[in-house]
Amino acid sequence: xxxxxxxxxxxxxxxxxxxxxxxxxxxxxxxxxxxxxxxxxxxxxxxxxxxxxxxxxxxxxxxxxxxxxxxxxxxxxxxxxxxxxxxxxxxxxxxxxxxxxxxxxxxxxxxxxxxxxxxxxxxxxxxxxxxxxxxxxxxxxxxxxxxxxxxxxxxxxxxxxxxxxxxxxxxxxxxxxxxxxxxxxxxxxxxxxxxxxxxxxxxxxxxxxxxxxxxxxxxxxxxxxxxxxxxxxxxxxxxxxxxxxxxxxxxxxxxxxxxxxxxxxxxxxxxxxxxxxxxxxxxxxxxxxxxxxxxxxxxxxxxxxxxxxxxxxxxxxxxx
Length: 320
Description:
Layout: E1 4-7, H1 11-18, E2 21-22, H2 24-35, H3 45-49, H4 57-97, H5 101-125, E3 135-136, E4 141-148, E5 151-159, H6 170-173, E6 179-181, E7 197-210, H7 211-215, E8 227-234, E9 240-251, E10 254-265, H8 269-273, E11 279-280, H9 288-292, H10 299-307, E12 314-318
Helix pairs in contact: 2-4, 4-5
């Protein structure tokens, strides 16, 4: 499973690299619905930053929506920070006279929440981008390249695919639907495979692995089944063009949802040796158009593209 990934979050890089068009309507809709509270879309900071220097009137409108949303988030965070600081002060006053379980727990929770709020405030206010601003987790949005009327197009999509026609409850019932297993493409993913394909650009991906497997020790030597997060990076330093499938979900009275899943397969030896049993599939640049120009009547050709993948060596280390 691709637990998270550091992606190309700026749609302009897709435009430069592939001559792709930006679906400005979908980007504007995403930020409008978020600002209006219609959706709870989670957008990485680097994806917002692409609109910091507007190039059109619509870009300027999107920038205004982003600024409005962030201003509301700052206000909420500052209010919560005030509340938690008061809670911490009250707990510490109690602890000066008597150590109680309730006061100790309140002190711990308030301290953690204060630290979290301060980090969030700093992230919103910080003008410069950091690598983690391009990192997505399931449920967050990313630019995905698709094909429409023979033209490469960039759309914002949620990283957890809800297939058209399925109930919204599938998000909870099937929380792993941010990845699509290759051996289930003609099963669960049949409505998408051969019909709606995409490509996500990835620099680095991260995986949760068993600490016992990573260390090469028996699980019995660990008190519990602990996990660690590993960072996997192609040793050649090149971007991965990750094969994806996507869907447009619609329902009466609900906003449309564009969402996608990265296709995964058996891992290369170095990923397996690090303790993980799945891996995303980076397709070759020369196969991108054939992947995006889907043909459900020739699934063999699509499987052949997945087989003829890029095969970089993945260096790994413990994630920071």
